[in-house]
Design goal:
This protein is of the alpha+beta class. The chain is built from eleven helices and ten strands. The chain has a seven-stranded antiparallel sheet. The protein has a three-stranded antiparallel sheet with strand order 5-4-7, with no helix packed on it. β4 and β5 form a beta hairpin. α2 packs antiparallel against α3 and α6 crosses α7. The two termini are 24 Å apart.
Amino acid sequence: MEERRIIHEITPLMGKDVLYIADRHKKEFTYPIHNHEVFELNFVEHAAGVRRIVGDNSEIIGEYDLVLITSPDLEHVWEQYQCRSEDIREITVQFDLHVGEDTLFGKTPFISMRKMMNEARKGLAFPVSAIMKIYGMLDSLSQIKEGFYAVMQFLTILYELSKCEGARPLASSSFAKIAVEDDSRRILKVKNYISTHYVDEIRLAMLADIAGMSTSAFSRFFKLHTGRNLTDYIIDIRLGAAARMLVDTKRSISEICFNCGFNNLSNFNRIFKKKKGCSPTEFRDNYRKTRIII
């Protein structure tokens, strides 16, 4: 029998609620893949071997895992997979906060938190160093009986996480349906062009011309700014779009392949399996089998 320690309300967030905190020990993960309107911070310990799926990202986690998700459309699940632990601990905090520029989070002391929340629309995984920094506060969160102090402690957790280095996005932008954003006007124009024309053949010279640079200078500039070379970036955009079509449509694999800018089915299957760890058919079957929207 799963042991539960829950404060606030057992039911999900409603009306004027701010936090829903579930701190529990269990032997296995059984909940299907899902998404929901409210934001979520999910912590798991002693669950090495569990498979975590966030959008089109799938990873096997270690002893500690912490993920922030702030998109209502992003599917996610923690699956038992190869985990053999007899005492898994999971702390789930669902919260309802508005983080627009005209809210408290638009003010100077909250800038790093707002940036983190924005990045977490694709799911944001934190390194062990960040987890250890906030572990004590997260560990005691469900024991705080006064709602105000629970909210204050949770905001402190979010702030400390926003100042940590090494957090990484999980889902691809195209799968998560995230609009392209960037500080650099030149790179933003290029990214917008790619996100609009990824189905077509995209030539380096054309993008360099959009950026007003030579091809060699643009290649260096693009990798410096994105951390990826142009080919890998375009492939990731196309794969994210393909993964979303696999989930949301009944189109055939070959149709999806050509609708996402790949001109060779066997090449598409090979690249998809290399990047996603499974074939397009397996990816679709796994989502269809376990998907639920709550």
